[in-house]
Amino acid sequence: MNFHILTLFPDMVENGLKTSITGRAIESGAISVEAVDIRDYTTDKHRHVDDAPYGGGAGMVIQPAPVCDAYEALCKKLGKRPRVIYMTPQGRVFNQSIAQDLAKEEDLVFLCGHYEGIDERALELIQAEYLSAGDFVLTGGELPSMVMIDCISRLVPGVLNNDVSAEIESFHDNLLEYPQYTRPETWEGRTVPEVLRGGNHAEIEAWRTRQSLERTLTKRPDLFQQTPPTPDEQRLLDKIRRDRSRPQLVEPPVCRIATEDDLPAILAIVQQARNYLRRHRVDQWQGTYPNEDTFRADIAAGTCHVLTYQGAVAAVFTLTFAPEPAYDALTDGRWRSDREHAAVLHRNAVSAEWRGTGLSDLLMQEVERLARESGAHAVRVDTHRHNGAQKKLLERHGYRFCGNILCDEPGHDPRRQAFEKLLK
After folding, report:
1. Which one, of 82, 150, 135, 80, lies nearest residue 111 by Cα?
2. Cis peptide bond prior to 53, omega within 30° of 0
3. Rounded CA separation 235/221 (Å)
């Protein structure tokens, strides 16, 4: 693709575009950039191209003849009359859709005004199209033209090393781009989301789609008016809005060892979890287990923990460090760690009031913190094969399926899937 810039400052344009990605594209021949000095087409011996405006007023106006002569000379050289884009705040605001349209051209002319603009007769004669970089005033059209050429160039085959980049980055399909991360995995206490490190491409794509929708909803909701979401996107947007209507965690929860006084709140959370599992037809916790005696024993052993939020119990879990006998009978796989150095997570549940707020993720972080502090090399856990919410939580935090076990829950499905995470 060939870009031709009619300007009073050719060095400014060429120096700016002959660097970075556009510079490499010029060197490879994927695009060409030609800056045409409008002053070369004036008949004034001092190379003046401007004069005072008729009717009076501040500033100077670029005369029509140098502009038209520069364009006509270019047309003669090319053997055709390419589209002319005039940089002015009076034009349509440039966006990705316009860039995609302009990228179809073989030759494109950018006309850069200066001072108070260009004589209207020249703009009419060359049939200039008006485009704007935004609702603000600049000294000239050179910077906007460079911005637009950079954007359009990215859509030209061969300009980007990875052609997929141009298809999925910001504003593709009128959605903002999802967050990007690179090494190191943890920096300043902030860790790259687990889903991006797991290697499951379907989950990564789903995460990126949701992040793009969330960012667009938060930062540029006007984009949905320009391009309505697809039915699938609309369903996901509805879910995002429902999630946002839930209570929000405004401070971190406190993790502590549970006491007898916490039993009423713990049992209420367990009953909520039991009801949730029943509604989703998961045959887990549907009998007498776990019950008050179960948690009394956990509390007495010092293995039951609660997460409190603003003083109220919001989640519960039990973490033990003795080998779990049922795990020794693992089938259809194998554990990846030594049983003597593995912590075991039992009976984790979050209050229904705080589901979908990220509290379950904070619970898992506390589990790993406690396991590390106790010298464990891994955390093991099991769940019912139909417990999708728990399995997604485990997978999100890097737990890997290791095999199947049988649990002791009389009268109910005893089959469980076992997961494990190695602690670094």
Report:
1. 82
2. no
3. 16
- Distance of alpha carbon 406 from alpha carbon 326, whole angstroms: 7
Which of helix, strand or coil describes residue 23?
helix
Query: Which tokens hold the place of 140?
Result: 């000239």
* 302-344 pLDDT per residue, tens: 999 999 999 999 999 999 999 999 999 999 999 999 889 999 9
247: preceding bond cis by omega (within 30 degrees): no
Tell me how far the alpha carbon of residue 67 is from its chain's centroid: 44
What's the one-letter identity of residue 291? N
What pTM does this model have?
0.60
The C-alpha atoms of residue 42 and residue 70 are separated, in whole angstroms, by 9
- DSSP collapsed to 3 states, 252-296: CCEEEECCHHHHHHHHHHHHHHHHHHHHCCCCCCCCCCCCHHHHH
Query: Residue 242: its pLDDT value, please?
Result: 86
Pairing of strands 50-51, 61-62: antiparallel
CA distances in angstroms from 182 to 54, 171, 292, listed in the order given: 58, 21, 46
pLDDT digits (tens, 9 = 90+) for 116-173: 899 999 999 999 999 999 999 999 999 999 999 999 999 999 999 765 555 545 455 6
Q: Do 398 and 334 touch, CB atoms closer than 8 A? A: no
Assess contact for 132 and 94: CB atoms under 8 A. yes
Whole-number CA gyration radius for the chain: 32
Question: What residue ranges in 321-359 does DSSP mark as E strands?
Answer: 342-350
CA 408 to chain CA centroid, Å, is 43
For residues 314 and 353, is the Cβ–Cβ distance under 8 A?
Answer: yes
**CB neighbour burial string for 51-62, b if at least 16 within 10 angstroms, e if fewer:** eeeeeeeeebbb
Amino acid 170: pLDDT: 47
CB 92 within 8 A of CB 131: yes
State the pairing for strand pair 400-406/415-422.
antiparallel
